[in-house]
Design a protein that fits this description.
heterodimer; A: 216 residues; mainly alpha; 3 domains; 0% strand; B: 483 residues; Formate dehydrogenase/DMSO reductase fold; 17 helices; globular
């Protein structure tokens, strides 16, 4: 048989191996970056029908989270307020603003404003707001610095890893119960670490790590 | 080796005894009949690949391809609709998919046994059948892999089975035998494929050197990876072959042991038994040899390979089938014995229920195919009737499928609580998906027959022919004392 393969063919297997390795690594890296919730969810910032400015209402007006999101501490679900809540103030303050036209319309007709849902846990996840906020887990851990947001966006990834980080080491995230709604709170006490561990122990914070804890 | 009595320098009384008994001198049986030479073997095997494609091949591969689409259609329907299209229910959460998985993976075991264990034990007769058996192994593992892959439900998450860091922050459950199975089967596939391919390289070199058309030169040239037949190549080749044989030997035992753990590590009566690992391994080799016979006998007559796959080879395969079939029969009996001897009412019920419960027919098909059929191989006239051997090898395949059905389904359908008992029957999707895997298997196997050397040419020349060793008298047929 005449030699049909040029000398360079000797290197082909090495190239193939090298190329394949590179390709596989690139695919894995790509999947890692683009297919995980830290890319697909974090940063999601839809345009809402009414541009409600959280930072203004929290920082300037001084509203507590629970003024609008009632029942967050009593129910598994944290409610989005009805337009009645808005009109408590806005029947007087900026009563004629164009920006609030939809709110007034909703108030008169009784039809809800169609807010775009940002933080949406999958149907196969059981999440209870009340048990978290009543055991020293602040809003800020999952929702980010909403008090500084002019337009709310999805701040955290909401991967299962994200949930488990806290469920595995609750003492690193816990805070005094009266500071749960203070999104700016930082531990100042140098002995906070011991106190946090004491809280976890005393309040019997036992976050489930088994599958059925959340996937019921 | 049968030495003559006078050569052995035995005590006088023994010699008298031997003279009285007149033991029959049993000559070594030839591995290649009719004094075939090197050239004949080369022409014979290469001819299968090089001659014009026979019409029957086109007919068969078209049918096989068509049947293989059943699996494709079944799986597409399954994924697009949901696992509800299978006949699974509560309590029978493991149905045909698991039965078929164990069935196919078991068939694969003969290939590794022949290529690894028989190689280490220097069984020269393996050379005629090892290539085909290894190909069978690989294609069977391909068919087997489909079932657990789709049984996970969301097949696009099947990569979660591998311990890769992921956004869920959890690892697979390393304490689960199902996880061990992932490693066992993927290792098994990798090593088998390597072994098969590496063993083929000298023969691919041969096909390359004989190639006339350009595509053949490139095709076999690339596959032969620059094999030059030099002494150094052979030295490396032999060492690599031995190393792989050593690596695969534990795999023959480990893979089906771990498959049996899928059942044995649970607490279900009928599954929770310590006999499972050896019993599964014996059953796997039994079914594997059944499949080797099913494939080799038609090949032998279609390609006129009677001089290479001789009656001796068939005898050997039948005897292994007989041995492993008897082990399986022993295991069936022992399960019943332990169920009685262990005095556990649930265990006893599980076995009585197998034989006389709602799936009694499956149990008795299993017993008649797996226990009664192989016992016929005791008789020489049975082993020499090729048609009969082939029919019996089909029974072995059927019986071993039913064994997995009996183990999986009967145990689940009637467990501890009568209130949770149920009945399982497959849906049309189950049936089509399973039938389709035979199409897939045949499709791959026919491609193998047409494009790759189906008998290890280099090996059979080196080990099976007496000409290969004219001086050292290492070959049994060259030893002076032989006939």
């Amino acid at each position: 048989m005449s030699n049909i393969f040029p000398e360079v063919a000797n290197k082909v297997p090495r190239w193939i191996l090298f190329g394949l390795t590179l390709k596989v690594l690139a695919i894995i890296a790509g999947l890692y970056y683009y297919f995980t919730p830290s890319y697909t969810r974090a940063g999601y910032q839809p345009v809402q029908p009414v541009s409600f400015d959280h930072s203004l209402h929290v920082k300037q007006v001084g509203l507590d989270c629970r003024y609008c999101h009632t029942f967050v501490d009593r129910s598994e679900h944290s409610t989005v307020p009805s337009s009645n809540t808005c009109m408590n103030c806005h029947s007087v303050v900026k009563a004629d603003s164009d920006k609030l036209a939809l709110v007034r319309e909703s108030y008169q007709t009784g039809e809800s404003i169609e807010w775009v849902k940002i933080h949406d846990t999958p149907d196969y996840v059981y999440f209870n707001h009340a048990v978290h906020v009543n055991r020293g887990v602040s809003c800020v851990h999952c929702h980010g610095q909403v008090d500084e947001m002019e337009e709310v966006y999805h701040a955290k990834s909401f991967t299962m890893n994200f949930c488990l980080d806290c469920h595995r080491n609750p003492e690193e995230f816990i805070r005094p119960v009266d500071k749960v709604y203070d999104l700016q709170w930082e531990p100042e006490d140098p002995e906070w670490e011991e106190q946090a561990q004491a809280f976890v122990h005393d309040w019997k914070v036992m976050p489930p790590e088994s599958c059925s804890g959340c996937h019921r | 080796m049968a030495h003559k009595a006078e050569d052995l320098n035995l005590p006088a009384e023994t010699q008298i005894l031997i003279a009285e008994a007149k033991p029959v001198d049993m000559p070594r049986r030839e591995l290649v009949e009719n004094n075939r030479d090197y050239n004949w073997i080369t022409e014979k095997i290469c001819g299968i690949v090089e001659d014009k494609t026979p019409t029957w091949w086109w007919v068969c591969i078209s049918i096989a391809g068509l049947v293989a689409t059943y699996t494709l259609a079944g799986l597409v329907y399954l994924v697009s609709t949901g696992v509800g299209v299978w006949g699974l229910n509560n309590p029978v959460n493991w149905g045909w998919a698991i039965v078929n998985f164990v069935f196919w993976i078991g068939i694969g075991h003969a290939g590794t046994l022949i290529s690894a264990i028989l190689c280490l034990l220097k069984q020269r007769w393996r050379t005629s059948i090892n290539r085909t058996a290894e190909a069978m192994t690989i294609f069977a593992v391909v068919c087997a892999g489909i079932f657990p892959l789709f049984h996970v439900g969301r097949v696009w998450f099947a990569w979660w089975l591998f311990p890769l860091p992921n956004a869920n922050g959890i690892w697979p459950n390393f304490r689960s035998p199902l996880e061990w199975d992932v490693f066992a089967v993927s290792t098994y596939f990798t090593v088998s494929a390597l072994f098969w391919y590496m063993g083929m390289i000298p023969d691919l070199g041969l096909l390359r050197d004989r190639a006339k058309s350009l595509w053949r030169k490139y095709f076999y040239g690339a596959l032969a990876m620059g094999w030059r037949n030099s002494a150094r190549h052979w030295k490396n080749y032999e060492m690599a072959y031995l190393t792989l044989a050593g690596l695969s030997t534990p795999l023959v035992l480990s893979v089906h042991t771990i498959v049996s753990f899928d059942f044995a590590a649970s607490i279900l009566p009928g599954w929770h038994t310590t006999i499972f690992p050896p019993y599964f391994v014996a059953g796997a080799i039994f079914s594997g040899f059944g499949m080797v016979l099913t494939l080799m006998l038609p090949l032998r007559s279609v390609f006129k390979l009677h001089d290479l796959i001789t009656q001796y080879h068939i005898d050997c395969m039948c005897k292994i089938t007989l041995a492993t079939g008897s082990m399986v029969g022993y295991a069936y009996a022992m399960e019943f014995f332990i169920a009685w001897y262990g005095a556990n009412s649930f265990e006893a019920f599980a076995f009585i229920n197998r034989a006389g419960g709602q799936y009694w027919w499956a149990y008795w098909i299993m017993i008649s195919c797996n226990v009664i059929t192989p016992q016929l191989f005791w008789f020489k006239w049975v082993r020499e009737n090729t048609t009969l051997v082939w029919v019996m090898s089909l029974f072995v395949n059927v019986g071993m499928w039913f064994e997995r059905f009996v183990i999986t389904v009967t145990s689940l359908a009637n467990d501890f609580l009568p209130s949770s008992w149920g009945y399982y029957s497959p849906t049309i999707v189950d049936i089509y998906t399973y039938i389709g895997t035979f199409g897939l298997f045949s499709f791959l196997f026919l491609l193998f027959l047409r494009f790759l050397p189906l008998i290890a040419i280099a090996e059979i020349k080196a080990l099976a022919l007496p000409q290969a060793d004219p001086h050292n008298e290492d070959h049994p047929l060259n030893q002076k004392s032989s006939k």
